[in-house]
Structure formats: C-alpha cells, structure tokens
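Standup notes, structure subgroup. Blocker cleared on the S-adenosylmethionine input:
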Amino acid sequence: MIAANRPISQPEIDLDVFHRYAGLSLPRHVSYPMPTWWQRMNVDDAQTMYDRCDHQSPGYDLSLYVHIPFCERLCKFCGCNRVVLGTNHDKSRPQVDRYISALEKELSLLSKGFGIRRPLRQIHWGGGSPTYLDAAQIERVHQAIAHTFHIAPDAEISMEIDPRTASEEKMKTLRQLGFTRISMGVQDFDEQTQKHVRRVQPFEMVRDLTTLCRELGFSSINYDLIYGMPYQTPETIRATVKQTIKLSPDRIAFYHFAQIPDKIATQRGMDLSRLPSSDSKLDMFQIGLALFEAAGYDFIGLDHFAKPDESLAKSLADNKIQRNFQGMTTGGDLNLLGVGASSISQLRNIGFLQNIKDIDDYVIALESDRSPIDRGKWFTGDDCIRQAVLSDLYCMAELHPKSIESRFGIDFDKYFAHELRVMQELTTDGLVEIGADGVIRVTKPLGRVLMRNIAAVFDAYLDKQAYRLGEKANFSVNA
Ligand SMILES: C[S@@+](CC[C@H](N)C(=O)[O-])C[C@H]1O[C@@H](n2cnc3c(N)ncnc32)[C@H](O)[C@@H]1O
Ligand code: SF4
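Run returned:
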C-alpha cells in the first residue's frame, strides 16, 4: 500500500517508455466497434434486431438508459449531448414537457416492436442533468417506464445528479419511486478551476447532498471527478482527492479530461495555455490511484474506483461488469435499451442502435410517428470475440485465452497470432505480463495508465501499428 502523502514522482514508471506510448488519440472503447464504423439504420433494421432478441437463447434480462438532455448552465469542459435552458423553468416548461411526451411515445413504440417480457433489472437516467426536471416531471417519466416494462422488485435504479439542481423534494421523490443509486457530478473542489470551467459548486453543497442521500437510504453514491483540465495541478488534484475521501462516496469515476475543442465549441472558451502537461497528468492519475487505494477503494478498469462491498466491485468478482456508454457498470449480462435523443441500445451478440442525436429532430420524428432510430451496427462474429477480449482487459485488467476459447470455440493462439506477437513486445516494455498459463495481465501502474494502447492491439478496425508512437504518428484505418 502506498503512503497517502508520499510525493509521487513516478518512480515505478519509466518516462521514456511512457512517452513512446502516450499522446496517441486512441479510443477508450466505450463501444466496440467505435461509432465511426456504424451505418445508417432504419425502423426495419431495428425491428429485425428486436426480433432476434426475442429468439435469443438464452434470453437476457433488460437494462434501460433514459437520456434527459437539459441543463440550467453550461460547463465549459462538457462533452455530453445536452441543451442549456437557463434557470427560468417556467419559460422552458413547454420545451421540456414536449420532450417528455416524445419519450412517452418512444416507450410506447418500443413496447409494440420489442418483446418486452423479460424483467427490467436496471434503469439509469443520464444527461444532461435529469435533475433539471421537477419532481412531477420525474414521476411522469418514471410512470411511463413502469407502464412499459416489468421492473424487477430488486432493480438497481440510478440517476446522474447535478448537485446545483438537486433539491430535497426531488431527492425524496427519487427514493419514493424506488431509486437506489445516485451519481453526482463533482468534477473538482478547487475554486479556481471551478470558476474557470464555470462549474461553481462549493464543497459544502456536495457534503450536504451526500448526507441527505445517506439519510434517505440510497444504497450507493458515486462522484464523477475530472483531471487534466486547465489550472489543475497535481497539488490541486491531491486536495480534491483528499476532500473526496473525506466524504467517502461508494464509487468514484476519475475521468481523464477529454479535450476535443474542434468538436466542442465551449472548450474553445477555456484557457488552453493552462492545460497541464502529460507528465503532470500522469502525476495526477498516480496521486488519485495511490490515495484512493490507500483509503480502501478497489481500482476497477480504466478510471473507476469502488469500495470492496459496493455492487461494482462485487460484479467484478462475478464477471458481470461491463464498459459501455455509461462508463463502468454492472449488468454485463443484460440487453441494454436506450431511449431519448442520442441514446444507444446494445443488444448482446446482435448489434448497436442509436437514436437521432439532435434533440429537436428527435422530438419531431416522434411527433410525426416516425421511429427515432438513426444509426447502428450489426455485430460480426469477430466483433463479438473482440468485444469479449476488450471487456476482459478494460474491466478485469486480465485476459484469459482459455476462457475466450471456450466461449467462442476458437484456437486463441492462431486467431490472435499477430496480437500475441505484439503482447510479447509490450511485455518487454513492462505494460503487460504473460503467465505460464498464457494469461495476459495488465501491469500497475504502467499498463493501467497505457490501457488504451494495449486494447488498441485487439481493435481490428485500427491500423495494426496504432498502439505506439514512432510506429505511426496516429491511428489510421485498415484497408
Ligand atoms: C451527464 S454529466 C453528469 C450529470 C450532471 N450533468 C453534472 O454535470 O453534474 C456526466 C459526466 O461526464 C463527465 N464529463 C463531461 N464532459 C467531460 C469531458 N470533456 N471529459 C471528461 N469527462 C467529462 C463529467 O464528469 C460529468 O459528471
Ligand atoms: S457537465 Fe453536466 S451540468 Fe455541466 S453542461 Fe455538461 S451535462 Fe450539463
């Protein structure tokens, strides 16, 4: 265990090796294949996928994602699909109610096309900020879900909460409706960073909301934190991590700042000259890793931490964890359905379906009785094998060839001959270790820090040399 206040200057990490791999724009694989490879889809494609789901053997129980895109204010770093409506809720009410009507319509269309016989084991509301809705609007959406699905009595029901719009009345409503988990956007406790990214939210606000959630009986509280934004330094991150540990959330998502100013206009308003260097970001990650582990959290996957008795850590042991659009989640054994603008359905061994991203176009489609399905991807057999490989790497930091062989009936060494040669090179550089039993283990901290480089080797849609600088400056596509 690493002492909590030890200065972290990466003694374990060889910076030469780190710089040979870091800095590539590699995918984080919240989906495989990545959306770049998806195609236009229509209602007939969706219906064929739903029919296949109906005939799946064994069938899978269900998980539902509900997208609520509204926020009161814009945070400059935000990469989510959201629309900012301001603080005057009377003014925005018609627009919000219209969106809720569209959601109700989508749920009713879904229930006609999809054989909704299996129980709903998970519901997750994301955004945007679902707490933009008032208590009555939240209840209206929940009732529409309850009319469409059979919600399992022990279902895990969670919501992404913006603490600035989470009133006591709303939190009480959530508990009464059966919500069990809360995920709060905390981002950073440092005042200077908060002001710069326009996300001002005092420590006391998060502390009081956490206390309220515990009193109301939510079984798990998650905090989202981001490192790598302008003005953040290893020392400000150390202070934020320590304050986080003081409040003792059950899970933490410790996100690396996804900086894409070309695509996200608001990020151009940030002082990018104050972005931390890649060495500083490495320090920040290691500070988080050391302090959270010293405080008793398990490190899960690329960027998540959980208390050992929390469901995420327990699911890891049962191999039921998965990495998807919601981050690292339990429910790896469920079919995921997504409703709302931009939402994605992930039907196991079948494919992805994504709704129209633009919020107005999504509403108009449903008002015109059209399906909101826009894009998607049919999985090939190879996609399914590689999904399993990537999932094992990202979630468990281990790859068991025998398990992949028995699940898919392949000869692992032959199927992945090229990838295994690359793994040997990564062994030399210290990113992975290969046991006598053939199990590939991601090292800590170097392999964990460079997890995306390891995963890139198994991504058939990337250039075969895409995992390391000097081989190719950036990733490109196999012909
Ligand atoms: C939908 S928001 C969470 C709920 C609510 N809107 C809030 O901000 O409190 C999802 C999370 O995505 C993360 N996020 C948003 N933009 C990001 C970016 N550019 N890089 C890394 N994480 C980001 C934030 O940590 C945020 O809490
Ligand atoms: S981070 Fe959350 S509150 Fe801020 S703009 Fe994005 S979705 Fe809205």
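Discussed briefly. Residues 33-345 form a domain with the pyruvate-formate lyase- activating enzyme fold (CATH 3.80.30.20).
Next: hand off to the docking folks.
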